[in-house]
Design brief:
Structural class: mainly alpha
Number of helices: 10
Strand content: 5-15%
Number of strands: 3
Strand order of the largest sheet: 1-2-3
CATH class of the largest domain: Mainly Alpha
CATH architecture of the largest domain: Orthogonal Bundle
Radius of gyration: 20 Å
CATH superfamily of the largest domain: Ribonuclease III domain
Largest sheet: 3 strands, antiparallel
Length: 221
């Protein structure tokens, strides 16, 4: 009875009542628990929800930004669909209070919040349709996007990528030039130098990191 009441409370919070309670239970049950053995699992729901989320955000950006090109659209989407933004959104709907985790987990992380939010989207579309799932995304995320969106930390992602793939971590040289900053990096494997500008040192290095990350990813494909 307690679990049913708890689920009902959460459904009221998100503005959607599930017909199939099995779906919402799986969306909220982290793989660290021993009960994640069903065919419609947390990971499968997360995979589906991730695709639906990208679709909904793309439609939103196309409608609200009719004059910008695909490059700018990609940047705007990355500022919405990232771990920090989705974690903020998940906390706003109290998702952290409803995730069921195993005994080995002692902290609800941003990644867990992000993944569970995507799993919830996957559960909603299986329980209803694309329109309902999109409405949920609009109501919980996009209608409040100014509060949630964050710039992607490409420098951090680049460092993680280099460590994981055993690449040399780039050495940044960043200097102020009049009203802006210019950051430069010479890649050790090609000895080619790349540079990007930004209004701040952090922005210049982040812009440069994004480009280098894209270049390095192509080398391992």
């Amino acid at each position: 009875m307690g679990n049913i009441i708890k689920l009902n409370s959460f459904e009221l919070k998100i503005g959607y009542c599930f017909n199939n309670k099995f779906l919402i239970k799986n969306a909220l049950t982290h793989p660290s628990t021993s009960s994640q053995k069903k065919s419609i699992s947390y990971q499968r729901l997360e995979f589906l929800g991730d695709s639906i989320l990208s679709f909904a955000v793309a439609i939103y950006l196309i409608e609200y930004h009719p004059d910008i090109d695909e490059g700018e659209l990609t940047v705007k989407r990355s500022n919405i669909v990232n771990k920090k933004s989705l974690a903020k959104c998940a906390k706003a709907i109290n998702l952290d209070k409803y995730i069921l985790v195993g005994e080995s987990i002692n902290k609800i992380t941003e990644k867990m919040l992000c993944d569970t939010y995507e799993a919830l989207i996957g559960a909603i579309i299986l329980d209803s349709n694309i329109k309902t799932a999109t409405t949920f995304i609009n109501n919980t995320l996009l209608n409040n996007i100014k509060s949630y969106k964050t710039k992607t930390n490409y420098k951090g992602e680049l460092i993680e990528f280099c460590i994981k793939n055993e690449f040399s971590i780039p050495d940044y040289t960043t200097k102020k030039n009049k009203e802006s900053f210019i950051s430069k990096v010479t890649l050790s494997n090609t000895q080619q130098t790349y540079q990007k500008r930004g209004t701040t040192k952090k922005e210049a290095e982040n812009n440069l990191s994004k480009e280098i990350l894209s270049i390095l990813k192509k080398t391992i494909c």
